[in-house]
Design goal:
By secondary structure, this protein is mainly α. The protein is 65% helix and 3% strand. The chain has a two-stranded antiparallel ribbon with strand order 1-2. Helix 1 runs parallel beside helix 15. The longest helix is centred in the middle third of the chain and has 35 residues, at 254-288.
């Protein structure tokens, strides 16, 4: 009797580029449907000068018509070139490529990082990624490629390093070790919203300092456990598909080999000594550029700002705009310093060629960024995110709860809205005039309202392709993907992140509940209740 052959459906994998193209097409069609249904929302925009509410009507913009399609076609180049992710990534990679080409990373990891326990190394990486939101989005563009290098050189799966860096930044975006750009951007809106109830209310820049510092440590510990217990086992061991070189047995006189090793050891130590000197000199220059009112100092400060924090982290601060370049410049300097001391490259031509080889795999990532930039720009143009955020504000306004139920519902609404509007400032501009007064009437402080924004924003930040840096996660996963015939899809990426998202989301909720119920200080002399 012949065995019946079972029919098996061939698995179909959509390349991330195709996914972003389809998402763009879907968005255009959806805009037409929602516009036809006349979906709209009204929200109150707060004038930060007069402290008056200005009613604003927003409607869904139909892009499936002559003007809409004209916009998509004529702005494709502008959307791509102005996409901040691309420029900051390339600037950051130039520095990393030089440091990698010089052999610095290989030596530093072999001599220093390899001695650190894997769990400790993961914790350090996630902690740095978490607190990197102190300076906008530097963590995404520098730490993701750097984590891949560190994990790979440490004989670990670089995909796990990429996940650790991305999730640390995205799901811990609201937690840092000090006052940063988020406070400078959000505080004026929170304070203006609070003055709708109390005309003299003041929100200090340090109002969330204690809770975000504690959150950074807690989230880093939990994140390390998730990466090591869930993500690393799922990814398995890393096997390169091609280009793997076999170790060559060195045959020769033992004394001669030992002498050669000693010479190499001396060169490496000299190279690392040069790196240490270069780091100290660079740190002195960097710190001096942040000190005001000294001869030729304050180069990175916005001297028009009234407070020092605003001078450093304000919208027009040179520190904010130039930090990625400064980090890249630092890696270039230490790469040159190491190469000079360790004599790992013969001349500038060899160094530049090797650095170019590191960036040779960037082609597929640039293509992916192009289509992601189109999707994000098109979605933004439809106003769908603004409408949904305004609906969220209306929902919170109509809530009849108080106390802890109100806190949890506000946190949930913010987390959901974040899926379509992942930028904190964009959400808070619409939500704050509703959330802050609503919670103040329930005896909950404006500072705690701002903390809920940080927590809700971080809970789902890494789950949306509308996050400008989500494309870097997908792109780097595929760059290091050993099976090029089976791309790591957007769906698989999200599936791998779900355990992280769920557990970290619960952690943020627990932190919010803990602080609210115990009345622990959010910052110096600032508490969850008024």
């Amino acid at each position: 009797m012949k065995e019946k052959k079972k029919l098996r459906l061939k698995k179909f994998y959509l390349h991330p580029v195709t996914t972003f193209i389809l998402l763009t097409i879907f968005t255009v069609i959806l805009s037409s449907i929602l516009s036809t249904l006349q979906l709209e929302a009204t929200y109150n925009k707060l004038n930060l000068t007069t402290y008056q509410l200005e009613s604003t009507l927003v409607t869904v913009e139909n892009l499936l018509n002559y003007n809409g399609l004209k916009y998509i076609i004529s702005n494709a180049a502008t959307n791509f070139v102005s996409f901040t992710t691309l420029s900051t990534l390339l600037i950051g990679l130039i520095g990393l490529s030089v440091a990698q080409a010089s052999g610095f990373f290989d030596t530093f990891i072999r001599r220093v990082l390899v001695k650190i326990n894997n769990q400790k190394l993961t914790f350090i990486l996630i902690l740095i990624a978490t607190i990197s939101s102190l300076i906008n989005d530097i963590g995404y563009v520098v730490l993701i490629p750097l984590a891949a290098i560190i994990f790979k050189e440490n004989n670990r799966n670089p995909l796990a390093g990429i996940f650790a860096a991305f999730t640390g930044v995205a799901f811990g975006y609201g937690a840092t070790l000090f006052v940063g750009s988020m406070e400078v951007n959000l505080n004026p809106i929170t304070q203006a919203s609070a003055r709708l109830i109390d005309p003299n209310y003041h929100v200090a820049l340090t109002s969330n300092l204690i809770v975000i510092l504690a959150s950074a440590i807690i989230l880093s510990i939990i994140g390390t456990i998730i990466i090591e217990r869930f993500v690393v086992p799922k990814l398995g061991r890393y096997k390169e598909q091609e280009g793997k070189t076999e170790e060559i047995e060195v045959i020769g006189d033992e004394e001669e080999i030992e002498q050669q090793r000693l010479k190499e050891d001396i060169r490496e130590k000299k190279g690392l000594k040069n790196v240490l000197i270069a780091t100290i000199l660079f740190a002195i220059f960097f710190i001096y550029a942040l000190i005001p009112n000294l001869p030729f100092s304050g180069m990175l400060l916005d001297k028009e700002a009234t407070t020092y924090v605003a001078q450093v982290f304000g919208e027009n601060a040179y520190f904010q705009d130039g930090f990625t370049f400064m980090i890249s410049l630092y890696f270039i300097i230490i790469g040159l310093a190491y190469a000079k001391g360790a004599k790992t490259v013969k001349n500038d031509k060899e160094l530049i060629t090797e650095a170019g080889n590191y960036m040779s795999d960037m082609g597929s990532l640039v293509i992916l960024i192009f289509f992601a930039s189109q999707f994000i720009a098109v979605f933004k143009m439809t106003n769908i995110a603004t409408v949904i955020t305004a609906w969220g504000a209306q929902l919170i306004s109509n809530l009849q709860f108080t106390g802890l139920p109100l806190v949890l519902l506000v946190l949930l609404v913010i987390a959901i809205v974040n899926l379509v509007s992942p930028t904190p400032l964009a959400k808070w501009t619409i939500l704050a005039p509703v959330v802050v007064p609503k919670l103040m009437q329930a005896n909950i402080s404006p500072e705690f309202s701002q903390f809920l924004l940080r927590a809700g924003d971080s809970m789902t930040k890494g789950l949306t392709p509308l996050l400008a840096y989500f494309v870097l996660l997908v792109g780097y996963l595929n760059m290091y993907n050993p099976n090029k015939k089976r791309p790591i899809t957007v769906g698989r990426t999200l599936k791998l992140m779900m355990p992280y998202c769920f557990i970290i989301g619960v952690t943020w909720i627990v932190i919010a509940i803990l602080w609210y119920l115990t009345g622990l200080p959010l910052g110096p002399n600032v508490f969850p209740t008024i």
